[in-house]
Specification:
Length: 353
């Protein structure tokens, strides 16, 4: 396993190289930047956390900007913010966490035969009666829309630059990209998107900022099912919590996944793994409850155990889950964090309520 590096250790290392790195970027040879700058910092960053990406260039005649980006992966955002917050102040360097938002006049994307700009991208909002707080958008491309993947990629790159990486990753719940001939509502110019999202976010925040679920007696139910491969699935879920009428006040769903070897036990954990994994989970539940997160439940099947949480924020739980992953190398551990205001991820269990 790679030796772990902390934020201070990375920046101490960077300071020994920064003059050389500056010269490489200032000269502007892209091949040299890739080989002599990016290929040097990538393995150092990977010792802190997986999922650091980077961009660089001159932001004025004498200053190099290094932008660290999560490439839209919410679970890695906090580690980028923390690393940049720990950066030293250096003449001729600007360190930026996440791709910043840009003035729309400065945003244009060229991709093969496609171009994306404020002149050919529009949007409208789909209102969902069942999910009134959901921000469900349709982006409309006025151009050759036959290649759906290409126009979706181009619009996403455009929005990442226009809104900024953090806003694009957190302000929109769901969206699709279509051609103009498929549009079913009046088109809104894309330059109005920031104001629209700010209005919806303010409305949402006002509605839910003081909503906190009361500490109530938790009622967990054991549920059993059989997978297609005939192996059992056993879940322990807080079914009354799935009936909570203000789910949108805890819009961030987190899934912590453990892989174990249960082949001799029909895919379920054997006693030693069961006890170890239960202990890890119990400590996580206690820690995360203190931080304001809700524990929804867990399920085990086919050599995988998943634990489920909901929260008002994605940063603290990212750090808790990463610590669990780092401290338990005997298990393959991964986690997902995503916005799901109505907890639709648990629809299957809602049917059991």
């Amino acid at each position: 396993m790679d030796e772990k590096l902390d934020y201070k250790g990375f920046w101490n290392w960077f300071l020994t190289k920064e003059e050389n790195f500056y010269q490489i970027v200032a000269i502007g040879d892209q091949e040299a930047i890739e080989k002599d700058f990016f290929d040097s910092i990538a393995p150092m960053l990977s010792q802190i956390n997986a999922g650091y990406y980077f961009l660089t260039g001159m932001c004025d005649d004498s200053t190099v900007e290094l932008v660290l980006t999560a490439d839209g992966e919410v679970r890695n955002i906090v580690f980028i913010e923390e690393l940049i917050a720990a950066a030293p102040t250096l003449d001729h360097w600007k360190f930026t966490a996440l791709k910043p938002e840009k003035n729309i006049d400065n945003v244009g994307v060229e991709m093969g035969d496609y171009s994306f700009s404020k002149d050919n991208i529009f949007f409208y909002s789909k209102e969902q009666e069942e999910y009134p707080d959901e921000i469900d958008l349709v982006f409309v491309y006025d151009g050759n829309a036959e290649n759906k993947d290409a126009i979706t990629t181009g619009v996403c790159i455009f929005l990442d630059s226009f809104l900024g990486e953090l806003n694009f990753a957190t302000q929109i719940d769901t969206f699709i990209v279509i051609g103009k001939n498929q549009a079913q509502q009046e088109l809104v110019p894309i330059e109005k998107l920031k104001d629209f999202l700010l209005w919806r976010e303010t409305e949402f925040t006002e509605k839910y900022k003081s909503v906190k679920r009361e500490d109530v007696e938790e009622e967990f139910s054991i549920l059993r099912a059989t997978l297609d491969n005939e192996r059992p699935l056993i879940a322990c879920m807080n079914l009354p919590l799935l009936n909570y009428d203000a789910k949108a006040s805890y819009p961030w769903i987190s899934v912590l996944k453990f892989h174990y070897n249960g082949d001799e036990n029909d895919g379920l954990p054997e006693k030693e793994d069961f006890e170890k994994l239960s202990d890890i989970e119990d400590k996580a539940i206690e820690d995360l409850k203190e931080k304001g997160y809700l524990y929804i439940g867990r399920e085990s099947a086919d050599n995988i155990k998943e634990s489920y949480f909901a929260g008002k924020d994605f940063r603290q739980i990212s750090k808790v889950f990463k610590t669990i992953k780092d401290n338990n190398p005997e298990y393959k551990i991964s986690f997902r964090i995503f916005k799901d205001k109505y907890w639709q991820y648990f629809k299957y269990y809602n049917n059991a309520v």
